[in-house]
Every structure is written in structure tokens, then in C-alpha cells.
Amino acid sequence: MSLEVLSVASEIYPVIKTGGLADVAGALPGALEPAGVRMKVLLPGYPSVLNQVEAGAPVAVFDDLLGVRAELRPATSRGLDLLILDAPDLFAREGGPYLAANGYDHADNWRRFAALSLAGAKIAQGAVEGYRPDILHAHDWQAALAPVYLRFCGERSVKTVLTIHNLAFQGNFSASIFPELGLPEEAFSIDGVEFFGNVGFLKGGIFASDRVTTVSPTYAREILTEDGGMGLGGLLRMRGDAVCGIINGIDTAAWDPAGDPHLASHFDRKSLKKRDVNRNALIEEMGLEPDDGPIVAIVSRLTWQKGLDVVAEMAEAILDKGIRLVVEGTGDAQIEGAFQKLAVRHRGRIGVHIGYDEALSHRIQGGADAILIPSRFEPCGLTQLYGLRYGCIPMVTRVGGLADTVIDANYAALEAKCATGIIFEEASEASVLTAMDRLLDIYARPKLWRSMQQTAMQSDVSWTTSAKLYADLYRDMTKDDQE
């Protein structure tokens, strides 16, 4: 039996992307299709979205969606079945999806994404003629009020799933906004959206959803702790078996070294010698000195969570070991500035690109020897999955999805030829330098290094298994309706 799922997301690749949420939202529909699940995605009508897609005539009109007029317009993009929430008062503005042109949050983000959530709930209740989903799947705090609206303002027949991509971003706002959300008074309570006297979008979604998923099994366990729960651990523990972790996959068609249009040379695990062409091209592009030492890459948001403050402070100690660094990313101004100064001071030893360039990220994965991900916490992470796919050995902390997807190159794993990366314990100078020493030891043995690259490239990083788990979850939630 086929299932209809409405996904509500604030971004989706390849239409609009700021992070991993977009990759997941964009990959799931195609991955679920073979499992008999049809997924339609509700997406805000940012200018960049409406400029990219050819949206059709409105299929529903909301004259008063939290005080604004909005239309639902269908569109397709690279196989994605979209519903665009065209609400110019909310989304037609300069800046990105969440930040204004000045770099600060849009002051009305609470209204913008509450409206997105409310539209999702109305669609689930039949706002679009001829369409009635079995499941509403909300992603992160931006869509987390959709299950809340269904619980407090509508029918409960539509089952709801909330996926937490990063618990650090919770959508907490002043209690003063509550009267404008269109929720009944009883929703502002501990059994609703009230969170330490404020309105908590994610908190409300965790309470109201039938199931809560995270993007890796280890992260699902970590957020049940006091430290990992970031104020929500008690509620998540209370939800019990309703909380589970399903590891992310990647789009293995978009990320395929055997046919990647961004690479200078295509290769696979049986033709790794061809990878050297990409390595040489990366050296030239990033202005690195040619030598025999390994190239370690960072492709990341440059933030405290990612542990990159530590790397910026100790980068010279890494360079002193004969390792060259390549950095691509954007984030905290202080960390950005630190890497830019390093690039000037150590020209030829470190190449830095501030910003995000999708094509460059492919070239880095295809040319660097290893990818460093020293996160303090990491719900899943996709960069290490790209690294595995491209033979760019992941060096990761033992947290969240990093621990779930990388097999450490300890003695037993190397002997068994199952090692795929290097795992270290924490984002500290001592741990990172020890990992670098381990990298140098393996890299100095070319036969062992090539074998480890080949093993990494054999890893199943696709959505196949995870999509089946989501399909099983949906069917388990709706089994009573199907009987």
C-alpha cells in the first residue's frame, strides 16, 4: 500500500540550501519512492526559490495566515514534488532564509516559520483539494509547530513525525508572541509550547509529535542526557520509545567520484591512481606547495560546535608536522579571521576559502587526503560520508553520527581491513595532534593507505537502508489505519 507523506522543511537541496537539513529534505523523497512512499514537500517561497522553479497556479489561498495573505503554488524541481508557500510579506526580502542582509536573524522569524507550520497543518487537514497525506513529517524548529497546530487546533487523524537535525537550534521566543500564534490558551503550558516562561517551537513539536527522530542513533542517545539534551533531555526521556535515531545518507548520484562533473579526473576504488590528478589540481587551486606530506581538509561551518576554534588556535602545530591544510567554510567572524591570518602567514602550507562553494567542496573531497571533523557534538554530519565516498579519509571525534559512520583505524581494524577513518576522543589540541600522528603513520605506508581508502569507498553511505527505516516507521504509525 502506498503512503502519502507531507514533508515540511525550511530549505531543500538543490533549490535552497544553508546546511545538512537541505540535503536530507532533498534526498528523502527519491529514496522513499522505491519503498512505496510518495513525499510532497512544503517549502517557503523565498525569492531565490520562486526564481528557480516554475510555480503553477495557486491550489489553495490563505487570506489570513497569521496576519498575512499567502498562496500555495505547486512546482517540480529535479524530481521533487513541491508546494511553495508564496507569502511575500514573510519571505520576499533580502538576505538568506534565516538571516537578514545585516547578518542578524530576521526579527519576525517566529511569525515566518509559525506560518509555514500552520500552512503544513492546514494542508494535512485537506486545504489542497484531492490531497490528504497519511503522515506530516516536520523538520527542525522551523516546522515544529505543525504537529502543535494539529494537536491543539485540528483533527488528530494525521500522524506526525518531527526530525531533529540539531538540538542546539530550538526556536525559542518571548512569551509575548504567543497571542499571535493562533493557538488556544491551553497550548501555553508545560504540555504545549511553554518553555521556561517563553515559547519553544522545538519543545512544542517534541511534545506534540507522535514520533521524534534524530539523524543518528548515537545522537538519539546523547540528547537524552542532561548535557546533550540542552534543556530538553527530560522531555525527550519522557517520550521514551517514541524517540529514535535514523542515520542520514547522501545522494550517491550527486556525490559519485566516477562521474562527478566538478572533478578534473574521475576515479573509483579500483582506479585510485587517477585520484592523484585531482590532488594536483587542488594543490594548484588552493596555492599549496607541492611536497610529499598529506593534505588535510576542513569543509564546515566555522563554529564552536564544529571544534574549529581549537583547530585555528593549534593550526601551526599541525603544519609543523609537514601536513598542509585546506579550509572551506563560513561562520564565526573570529574563527574566519584566524584562518585568513594563518593563510597569509603560512602561504603555501594552508589554503583558505571563506564562503561555501558546492563545486569546490566536491573538488576538495576528490583531492585532499583526509577530512578533519573535530566536532564537540554532531547530530549526524554529512561531510564524513562524502569523504568515505571519495576516499578522503575522515578524522572525527567520537560523537553522534561521526561515531556511527566511521570505523576507527585501530590495530585490529587495520589487520581486518575494515578501518575507514581515524576517531579521536575530543576537540582538544592533544587529541587532534595524536590523530595527526596516526594519520602520518598510516600515510607513510602507501599500500596500507590505499587499502584503507578502498575500504572507506566501499562503505554504504546511500539512503537505501535509512529510507527503508523511515518507510517502516511510517507504516508502523499508520498500521491501525490500514487494518
UniProtKB/TrEMBL annotation:
Query: One Pfam family of this protein, by short name?
Result: Glyco_transf_5
Q: Does the keyword Transferase apply?
A: yes
InterPro entries according to UniProt = Glyco_trans_1, GS/SS, Starch_synth_cat_dom
Q: Which residues form the Starch synthase catalytic domain?
A: 5-237
Which SUPFAM superfamilies does this UniProt record tie to the protein?
UDP-Glycosyltransferase/glycogen phosphorylase
The record's section on Gene3D superfamilies has: Glycogen Phosphorylase B (3.40.50.2000)
Keywords attached to this entry: Glycogen biosynthesis, Glycosyltransferase, Transferase
Q: Pathway it belongs to?
A: Glycan biosynthesis; glycogen biosynthesis
- Carries keyword Translocase? no
Q: Where does ADP-alpha-D-glucose bind?
A: K17
Substrates-to-products reaction catalysed: [(1->4)-alpha-D-glucosyl](n) + ADP-alpha-D-glucose = [(1->4)-alpha-D-glucosyl](n+1) + ADP + H(+)
Role this protein plays? Synthesizes alpha-1,4-glucan chains using ADP-glucose.
This protein is called Glycogen synthase
Native source species = Fulvimarina endophytica
